[in-house]
Amino acid sequence: MVSIHTVLARLERQSMLEKMRIVDVASEKRMLAITPQTARFYHDLLVRIKAKNILELGMSVGYSTLYFVDAMRYNHKNPRITTLEHSPLKIKMAKSNFEAAGVAKFIKIRHGEISNTLRKMPKDQKFDFVLVDADKENIIEYFDLVLPMVRVGGIIATDNVLLPKKYQKFMDKYRKHIKSHKNVLSGTIPLGYGQEITIKIA
Question: Which PANTHER family match (predicted)?
């Protein structure tokens, strides 16, 4: 077992090599992760809000998951993150990373189609923070499903609201949809691929 920071450094190198096309990776194995700058921003945010219970939609190989666990451990001995992923291959890769970092016990992976998985989850649990980083075609549905699961004062963060451009039409509709809700406050941060930070106020 190595440190969580060693695993994160390895994944960051891999992501850089993939983005620069220095290595040729099959599409189903690509990391598709948030940027390191985005990860560190959320790490600091989670430490400050003392997040203990997190939900993640779209795990990929577990890069952001590891950052979140590391942040939660600053304030809690037994943090909990529930992460949803539909790809068995990505789940296998992520589990290997979690076990290498020695944090698998803090992470609950739920395999399956995200909408169906969310509908089956207990409705009485309240998350401090949710990251939405899954397929963009269904992102409005995901938001509506997770909003009741977030505590008042909790945060829903969404990646890719600005980039890549191929998602723009979905993300414009998504941001418009969020602004139709009276019980949230939301704003866009031009960090990484663009982050939408939504706070549940009522």
Answer: CAFFEOYL-COA O-METHYLTRANSFERASE 3-RELATED, O-METHYLTRANSFERASE-RELATED
Query: Quick check: 109 and 91 in contact, CB under 8 A?
Result: yes
Q: Find out whether 10 and 18 touch, Cβ atoms under 8 Å.
A: no
Q: Which CATH number fits domain 4-200: 3.40.50.150, 3.40.50.1110, 3.30.930.10, 1.10.287.990?
A: 3.40.50.150
- pLDDT tens digits along 95-116: 999 999 999 999 999 999 999 9
Distance, in Å, from the CA atom of 7 to the CA atom of 24, rounded to the nearest integer, reads 21
Q: How far apart are CA 139 and CA 54, in angstroms?
A: 18
What digits encode the pLDDT tens for the residues 1-28?
689 999 999 999 998 888 888 888 787 8
Termini Cα distance of the chain: 43
Average confidence (pLDDT) over 79-99: 97
Complete DSSP assignment for 67-84: HHHHHHTTT-SS-EEEEE
Q: CB 171: neighbour CB atoms within 10 A?
A: 22
Q: CA nearest 161: which of 118, 190, 121, 199?
A: 190
List the domain boundaries for the chain.
4-200
Residues making up the chain, counted from first to last: 202
Token match 């939660």: residue?
A: 72
